[in-house]
Hints:
By secondary structure, the chain is mainly α. About 60% of the residues lie in helices and about 0% in strands.
Amino acid sequence: QGGLALLAVEGLHSLLKDDFFAQDIVPLDTGSCSLGDVSRGSRLTLLDMAVQSACDVATTFSRETHFRAIVDFVADSVHLSRGMLNDRTLGFVLRFYLFVFYFGASIPTTGWPFNQMDSGGDFLLDSQLSEQSQSMTGRFFEGGAHQAAAVAMKGFISILLGRAGAGLEQPLLSFEEESESLSNHTQLAIYQIHRSGGSELFWHDMIHSVGRGLFGNNAGQDGGCATANTIAFAVLASIVKACSGKVRVTEDGNDPVPRDVASKLLGLDLLSHFLRMWDVAAVAETKTTVGASAQSLPENATTTMGYAIRRLVSPTILSNTSAAIEDDRVFRRIIRIVSQFCRCQFYRRQMKVEIGILFQHFILRVLAFGPQVDSVSLTSDIPPLFHQQLDVLDAIISLSNEPGLI
Length: 406
């Protein structure tokens, strides 16, 4: 009633700062895989219940005045626990962040993210600080709660992927039956991405039906790594789902629905961040045992996620071709992702064919159209590709300046 819910969330946040939930937080260990205790995925703690309740308050009552306080509490809870929460709680957190962002993007204004989208070259999250070591409390965001939620999502991905990727020290695609199993599970994920409405059931399926089928029985990793990589896959599937949404048009048929545009741009920004963070998790130097010297992950490490990215991300990027032609902001984000594939050693190893297809489709074909002008043509149904060609030239120059890449 009234402001009671807001007062309760602020009280929970104070308890979080006072170490009331200290017993629910896994002590920091030296190995990333040891943080992924298998029991954490199923054990429900007081902190899990508090986070789930706070997310429920936001999504049930939809009081905009409560959003920022709840975003701060949830983000700080994820930060202090280093993402070591119940599997279901992590799903609550991701859906809550998306709900708050969509709520703000559904009300067209001149504020964020619409003012930043109209500025052309800016990405929604590039200028925002979202390091794992930073708290959301006290940080000012021009766009309010929905901008804070978008930044918190970026930090959420960084935290979860910070403990994923390690421990996969044996080839995962050595046998034909393993390849068939991976293919079946990723195909099920693609089906659910296009069929499901993105509810709690979708997260449950990505964790239990698909994720554990992909990572749960891999040789060479312990249960903690399997849990961390399963969560990472569920996050990837949720981001791909956001990128796969259609951009509807308003009733007059002239302008796209602002919420759909904001959703797609945020999804592509988060996908770019996920790919960058996974490359860091896959190839960064890690210590396998206490006191052992740091060593890079072997060439066949994290092959399962590499396969999943090939099957999920590449078709999603290609399916956004029409949106990229119609909106240079979408194209700019796609070019950034294609450039990431070209730059990152992990993706160059895992996605040789896919990189060639994407490079030819989005870079060479756009250049093949010939010089474009920055004006609307009355004789062609295809919008001018002037800004797209400029983005392609910038990408080629950037890639060419890196020694040994091309």
